[in-house]
Specification:
The chain is an alpha+beta fold and 235 residues long. It has three helices and 18 strands. The strands form four sheets. Strands 1, 2, 5, 6, 14, 15, 16, 17 and 18 form a nine-stranded antiparallel β-sheet that branches. A hairpin with a 2-residue loop joins β8 and β9. The chain starts with a helix and ends with a strand.
Length: 235
């Protein structure tokens, strides 16, 4: 009984000491992160060179919906994803959170030929890109990659390909995006598991829009900070 009383007293003391923090977390932090704004560490290079491994990106969860905390239930529809958006979404294959670019919206006809996109019968424009867009990539990767600026419906952004990577996803025949669905891809076209693998993404699976890099650390170099990427906007 004495031990039980000691445990009870200990728990009560800990509750008195930490209740403010616990309640703040439960009723402020959790609702804000799940419904209003969040951040997402990016562990892979599927969005290179726009987003690099070790970036912490800010996610505006009010970009598309106001959702009930901790659910996908929309309390208020705000807008729909647009071509060019960098969106955070759940994979329709395994529910993993992904960061991808919206390429096609409902009704779009999409085709790809040797990593060149055609949308609604029109070839996208590609042009040379400044080295400033690739400076945060590892030197070895830069040497073995091709880079370009892609103009997606007026939204210009960097894309890349890695010719040495074996893949059959550099080309696909014409697809029509169904109502209520979207076609997404990574900016690293040869190293991205996206709609070319798991198909179209339902509107309800979109969490929010990634708009900025908050901080960035180089995972391949002892997590050295990339100060030049701190608090920068995403194209």
């Amino acid at each position: 009984m004495i031990m039980k009383e000691k445990i009870t007293v200990f728990i009560k003391n800990q509750w008195r000491e930490w209740r403010g923090t616990i309640l703040f977390f439960l009723f402020v932090v959790v609702p804000v992160k799940s419904s209003l704004a969040d951040w997402n560490w990016v562990p892979t290079g599927s969005m290179n060179p726009t987003i690099v491994e070790g970036d912490l990106v800010y996610v505006n969860k009010l970009a598309y919906d106001l959702r009930f905390p901790l659910t996908l239930h929309s309390l208020n529809h705000i807008s729909d994803p647009e071509r060019g958006d960098i969106s955070v979404l759940f994979s329709p294959e395994d529910d993993i959170r992904l960061v991808k670019r919206v390429i096609g919206v409902p009704g779009d006809e999409i085709e790809m030929r040797s990593n060149i996109l055609f949308i609604n019968g029109k070839r996208l424009d590609y042009s040379e890109i400044s080295k400033e867009h690739t400076k945060d990539l590892e030197e070895e990767l830069r040497r073995h990659s091709l880079f370009a600026e892609e103009n997606l419906d007026g939204h210009k952004h960097a894309v890349m390909s890695v010719p040495a990577v074996p893949t059959d996803k550099r080309s696909f025949t014409r697809l029509v995006v169904p109502e209520g669905h979207y076609f997404v891809m990574g900016d690293n076209r040869d190293v991205s598991k996206d709609s070319r693998f798991f198909g179209f993404v339902e509107r309800k699976l979109f969490i929010g829009e990634a708009t900025n890099v908050i901080v960035s650390f180089n995972k391949l170099d002892k997590y050295q900070p990339r100060f030049g990427r701190f608090f920068t906007s995403l194209d």
